[in-house]
């Protein structure tokens, strides 16, 4: 397929509905949506306002020479456009969202309701601290529970997302090395080849050199290779646990002891804390720093456009270097420590203010409504659901590794060999079945990877519907129905893009059709 002059994919034809085309392009309640630029009138606007009298522009020579090329739309037209677009989005409120490594679970509406209470939603970070005592107390209480769940003595609340939390942890490690006088000699950070891409990027951002750790045949860090790479120049290790293959690193305590003996620190990527919260305390495993995605583990809207929150827990060795600001309680009152004179070892600030308040409210609401036993049960259910999916799909698909998994099930494309169907084709066919595809081609250590994370919020019935569909698709692929997969999706509002052409000749801005045609020539 190819892209049209405006850079959009071609329409969903031919399809099952092509046998009975409509005059409008609509298919019942599946309404065709053109670009606003195609719908609007460039000669007029949706609102007729008179020119203001007696005013002069204060922009001087910075004023634009001409009006922007924007379509004029009436309010109902603009509203209908975006409502129709919203109806084409897949969402967790519609069905299972099996993206591995993402934890796309249901967000309890209670959390949303509390986050929108005026005392939380309407406050401003520049208000006098005396007027936001409740908010500061909430941050302190949430910090306390994060420390309790992780077994760590300190937590930095200000990081705004997972990668930001990683940066916080690695900056604390850097600050500790500077304090020891070893920042110039300890420059190497060990990172498993199955790590999230942000891990090596964060290490490099902090001035370290990344040394890749290979995986063993069982999908975990090769402990023998790890031992060989230790040396006086090692600043630390960055490990995700459970890892991105959906497996628990059985040797994590040994790795922590070894890196500490070598004089380095242990950073743990906490993106998958959802699988062990209430069951395992990272502090007991020898972890020095670990970020926690509040927008995954504690049900805030990951993947819904943000914003995120990535508090970072720190060990006793790194606690003095935690960034400003942080909340302290004095004689029943709360305040933010923001002056470096009160925390001389702090490595600085990461954000202008104190963190993401909306995420803090949602996370604490989740914790208090679940309780310790409920959080542990959520982790158990996440692991149970993933192993149920693994067991059911193993009949037709190819598990990447033997044995049980943690919170996500990983498959390779081995079951598609010789069928003419690729991983991406399988994903596109899932769209026609009404499912968002799982994470494809990640982690890179598995050929044609298909990573499925059902999360704890899915019922057995929804898991069975999902598994039945994938099993049927696998059988179709093996039965020689390759064309069905190559032409998918057939029922979506848009067909498959020519991805090679889109990458080589992207159309990044709208142009009138005549101008676009000339540019293409």
Automatic annotation (TrEMBL):
The Glycine dehydrogenase C-terminal domain, residue ranges: 378-485
Catalytic activity: N(6)-[(R)-lipoyl]-L-lysyl-[glycine-cleavage complex H protein] + glycine + H(+) = N(6)-[(R)-S(8)-aminomethyldihydrolipoyl]-L-lysyl-[glycine-cleavage complex H protein] + CO2
Enzyme Commission number, as recorded: 1.4.4.2
Gene Ontology biological process terms, A to Z: glycine decarboxylation via glycine cleavage system
Pfam family, one: GcvP2_C
First-level EC class: oxidoreductase
MF-aspect GO terms: glycine binding; glycine dehydrogenase (decarboxylating) activity; pyridoxal phosphate binding
Superkingdom of origin: Bacteria
GO CC annotations, alphabetized: cytosol; glycine cleavage complex
Composition-biased stretches (Low complexity): 8-23
Annotated keywords: Oxidoreductase, Pyridoxal phosphate
Span of domain Aminotransferase class V: 183-303
InterPro entries documented for this protein: Aminotrans_V_dom, GDC-P_C, GDC_P, PyrdxlP-dep_Trfase, PyrdxlP-dep_Trfase_major, PyrdxlP-dep_Trfase_small
Residue segments, region Disordered: 1-24, 480-505
Entry-linked NCBIfam families: PRK04366.1
Entry function: The glycine cleavage system catalyzes the degradation of glycine. The P protein binds the alpha-amino group of glycine through its pyridoxal phosphate cofactor; CO(2) is released and the remaining methylamine moiety is then transferred to the lipoamide cofactor of the H protein.
Protein name according to UniProt: glycine dehydrogenase (aminomethyl-transferring)
Taxonomic source organism: Parvularcula dongshanensis
